[in-house]
Structure formats: structure tokens, C-alpha cells
Structure prediction request, 187 residues.
Amino acid sequence: MSSNPVLKPRLATPALILTSAAVSIAAGYFLTALSAGMPRGAILIVGGVTILSASVALAAIWLTRFHRRRAWMAAAEQKWHEFDDAKRSHRTTTEITVISVDALEPTGSWITIYWNRFDHVQQAWIEALPEPIWPGSVLLISPDPAQVKPGLPWPQTYYIGGPDTLAWAPKAEPTRKPRKIPARAHS
Prediction:
């Protein structure tokens, strides 16, 4: 089973933080006991080895999570660059956010979408795509003028063809900055 590429990996969890704090306190106690000249019995040696191995394991977990998060950020940034490039290279586009995937079928999926520009939630059918669609994905599509017309009600179900889906990116934009609207010159 593949993991959702839209979700940013968590770096720290309460359990990892508490375990790290407990191992750090135990390591501090162990080093204090060694420097105070307490007898170096077998229990102290076993405790030191245990604390050392726990510290190494926790460091490996922290590093793995840090690298996984860094890789996700780089991939998300690349996806947003591709998204922006596709937006610039096509004439009429709009962004929709996948709220939920309601039903998967071999030829496509029933999804609930949010039209970002129009603040509208709607059921949609999307044809099967080369990559899976996950809740939280932002899709760049070419809207079908036969389905959505200004001044008319929204269709009950919007149909998204495979070729109409131009790009996708995770909802959380890692480094994308909002565009500034230039100030008007007062005449």
C-alpha cells in the first residue's frame, strides 16, 4: 500500500519527544554517576550500554524523519513548479481541491471537489489518471465550457476527463508565496 504523497510527514510526535527526553535524562544521570565516582558495577555498565543504544536508535529515528520530511518538501516544491508551468502554458485553467475520494472504479473515481476560485463544493467523476488522486490534492484542470456556464446553475455532477487534468500538487504549498497585487497609480 502506498502512502499519501499529499500529507506532509510528521517530524515529531509526542511519544518520540517524551522518549527522547527520558533517554536524555537517563544519559545525564548516567554521566553524573560516572563523574561522581560511583562504583562501576555490572548494573552501571549494562545501564550505560542500554542508554547508548537507545540514544543511537532515537538519533536514527530523528534523522530518518528529518530526511523524509526534507525529501517531501523538495518533491512538493517540484510539483508546484510543474503546476505553475502547466498553468502558464495552457489558456484557460482553474484549480480544484479534492476533498474526498468517494468511490474507486477501474475507469475512474467519484470524488468531492472544491472549486478554489468559486468557493463551491461539488460531486465529480474523474477519469482514471496515471497517478492516484488523494484527498488534499490540488488539481489544475481545463474547465469544460459545456458544463460550467456563467449565469447558469452548477451541474449536479461535474465530469473531469483525463486529458483535462493538467497537473496536481499537494494542498500545503511548501515555498509558494502569494502573488502581490500591484498597487494602482492614483491619477
Remarks:
- Helices lie at 14-35, 42-89.
